[in-house]
Amino acid sequence: MNDLLIRRARLMDEPGTVDVAIKDGYIVAAGGGVAGSARQMIDAAGRLLIPAFVDAHTHLDKALTASREGVASLAEAIEDFQRRSRKMEKNDFLDRGRRVLKMALSHGTTAMRAHITVSEALGLRGIEAALELKREFAGKVELQVFAMAGEGEPVPASPLQELLEEALRLGADGLGGAPYLSEGMREWVDYIFALAGKYNVPIDLHVDETDAPTVASLEYIAAKTVQTGYQGRVVASHCCGLAAVDDARAAQAIAAVKDAGISVITLPSCELYLMGRQDRGLVRRGVTRVGELQAAGVNVAYASGNIRDAFRPFGNADMLEEALITAQVLQMGTPLELKKVLEMGTYNAAAAIGLNDYGIKAGGRADLVLLDASSPAEAIIGQVEKVCVIKGGRVAARNDKKSDIII
Ligand SMILES: [Zn+2]
């Protein structure tokens, strides 16, 4: 007997409806007229069933710390966090992280990559809390904890180097940082790749998060990826500078990114709030060249990034809300384009962070969201209810108190 049978569900790219049978956390059959009994049944009644959202870039440690004063720039937001983080205790990280993970789950996110700052001032308090949350939320939200090098630079024998390595020993899933901020960018990138190689973990870097026209760190990271055989295990987040270089330069960098098998994560809601702060009149958006990257065959996902902190005082850990912002800023408004946007927050994000067995197919993990819509366009435009969130074949969150879809 199956654990769960979802009847009459509409999928993103198939006409008509299908039935989806689930057993032991995985989809065993998906198609027309799937037979067999199940312990629990959901009648989707033609609603859209999508693989659960994957928020591939968040800062759980910073989330929900927005101050009343606000900040004037990215540099000020970084300083704001450095100042506050000195006083932050582990319980503070746990409380805020827990609230965000609950918000995310209720909005249909069942996998998340969190960049957690490691610095001399902060030590490993953020990492320890995130690893605790990872265990606490296992079975609800799959959390990837990435140690992000904060304040200072990981120069040889520095305390920061020691802390980053200790974070990996404690169980951090990967390494991150913002080497573009440093004059020693290349050494910095070399070090991250060496340490990641030593512990065999993936890399996810903040790349050229600046209004300036530059692809310096993007191109160096691409070259390093090929040189170290790290293709498919590196993510470049932001890549704002790529938007500002000329078209020929951009095409060159995009080709290098494609050759290196790097996934790009764009953070439109964060860029819109933080970038172009010095501009008057025509304010730059800072969002990277998503269309050109995709046309070149690069995997591009969107993510929420900062959730109610100094970097962005907005956000609800809601990937459907981020989809609407992404669609608007990327000028993707046709039904086909809106489907592509939804894929960027699901399939593409899952591929970027290396989730196996993702998708609605036999053998796929049963992490699903039933949306009160009949198409991706309707879901994004209408910001519809996430009727039911399923994680590992179990109903993990329900927002259908009025209707009665679970039989
Ligand atoms: Zn970030």
Q: What are the defining features of this structure?
A:
single chain, 407 residues, Urease, subunit C, domain 1, TIM Barrel, 2 domains, eight-stranded parallel beta sheet, binds zinc ion
Structure notes:
- With 407 residues, this protein is α/β, with parallel strands linked by helices.
- It has 2 domains: 2-51 and 358-398, Urease, subunit C, domain 1 (Roll), CATH 2.30.40; 53-352, TIM Barrel, CATH 3.20.20.
- 35% of the residues lie in helices and 22% in strands.
- It has helices spanning 74-85, 90-106, 125-136, 159-170, 185-199, 216-227, 241-244, 247-259, 268-274, 290-295, 319-329, 335-344, 347-352, 376-382, and strands at 2-9, 18-23, 26-31, 38-43, 48-51, 53-58, 109-118, 142-149, 174-177, 203-207, 234-238, 263-266, 300-302, 368-371, 386-391, 394-398.
- The model has no long low-confidence stretch (mean pLDDT 94).
- The structure holds zinc ion.
- Zinc ion binds at residues 57, 59, 115, 206, 237, 305.
- Residues 40-98, 142-395 form the Amidohydrolase domain.
- One of its GO terms (molecular function) is hydrolase activity, acting on carbon-nitrogen (but not peptide) bonds, in cyclic amidines.
- InterPro entries: Amidohydro_3, DNase_TatD-rel_CS, Metal-dep_hydrolase_composite, Metal_Hydrolase, Metallo-hydrolase_Enzymes.
- Its EC number is 3.5.4.42.
